[in-house]
Task: structure prediction
Amino acid sequence: GSAMMKGLPLPDNDVLWSHKGVQGAVSGTCAVVGNSMNLFNAENGDAIDAHETVYRFNREDRRMAHVKEMNLTTIQRYIGKKTDVRFVNRKYTDSLVNGDAAAGDYQPGEVIFFWNLFSASYIKYLTEHYPHVDMYLIASDLVNWELKVFSQLRKDLMSLGMGPFECYRFMSSGVHGILLATLTCAQIDVYGFSFSMDNFQASFNHGRPSESHSWDFETALMRVLYFAGFIDICNA
Result:
């Protein structure tokens, strides 16, 4: 834990810490909800919503509902409906800018964090067009800390004989969320993430995964964080 925190520029006053009274790593229970179809292996919606803070990523619920031939209300039995913090990538920044169907799903009270610097030029426009949602660009120092941790853990696993891992351009939104949750949550329960490549391939929610991410390393990272006691994996 101390190695992960080394070099982290902790702010005195930042929205990530101040949201809902959170001060440092004392946010109580957090549900970090990914977009894997393994969410539909159990009706965990109420358990997810019972957490003090719920993290989600992008807007994959419409796609998942389509795949399962369910409506957006029915899938809440599996994925929950509460959202406090949502991490959004470049693709879903475009979705917000273009105002497509998913853009109308963001609810009042959500806090949206953009982690890709591409989104910076759109923040002013988006906050004007979606005044009911709080939107922020994650500070570059914090993203750099995430990348440092991610890269060091990747190097450490390779030194232990794991890999080789696929190259990557970006960390996934899910990894951004989990790493930041380690700073703000006393307990992290993870739903809808893959913890092996077999699980990933069987549970991806559409045909072609992004080639920008190192999915083989990220699934290995989930196992490492679990065995190190940083997260609990709540997939059925």
Q: What stands out?
A: The first strand starts at residue 29 and ends at 33. Residues 5-23 have pLDDT under 50 and may be disordered.
